[in-house]
């Protein structure tokens, strides 16, 4: 596995699932890792687990990524403990309930947008301010997108729009900040074990879900993207030489499902 020795990495939504797998990969590669999650119990559990192996190499903080003040506190805490920030991975996100626009409540829309889009915007904004003022300047932002970022009929309206907008934020950020040594990259992920749990827990819009299923080849367990491989990809992209060439790219990582 590639080395991330000495780098400081923030991973949002990282007290479980994909985010924790990404954070663990960076810890194993020698990075200083800061994780946040809105769930205080999961944060406490990760702190207890990692304190046995990684001691002073990590910081875990309860943070609502849709709260600008909380996001700034996260950035400040990371820099206070480790001296700088090198990589931000915007992983925090939730699924919708597959509701189409006509059936999506304003409450559902706002909740998905706040976490999936406003959160990455706020963390990106705060990270860029830090990237610009530190010495040496620069940094890398990796946004965890979805096949729904590029396919308009793979989930409900709210999730689809949030992930498409996240792809646009990735490219816009890359375009303006690339010559400043700040690189922005998107990973458009396919089906994973943790992707859809929120939707099942909330009660899906079954007509929409069934129409989506009928419009594509069936999803099967062997088409799942292993979260450990996503973590490896993030580690690869954290190399500044690689990131400079990948700047602005939004890369499908989906085992060719849905088919290209």
From TrEMBL:
Keywords: NADP, Oxidoreductase. Gene3D superfamilies: NAD(P)-binding Rossmann-like Domain. SMART domains: PKS_KR. The keyword Lipoprotein does not apply. CDD domains: SDR_c. One of its GO terms (biological process) is fatty acid biosynthetic process. Residues 7-191 form the Ketoreductase domain. One of its GO terms (molecular function) is quinone binding. InterPro entries: KR_dom, NAD(P)-bd_dom_sf, Sc_DH/Rdtase_CS, SDR_fam. It comes from the Eukaryota. It holds the Pfam family adh_short. The keyword NADP applies. PROSITE patterns: ADH_SHORT. Belongs to the short-chain dehydrogenases/reductases (SDR) family. This is Ketoreductase domain-containing protein. It comes from Staphylotrichum longicolle. The lineage of its organism: Eukaryota, Fungi, Dikarya, Ascomycota, Pezizomycotina.
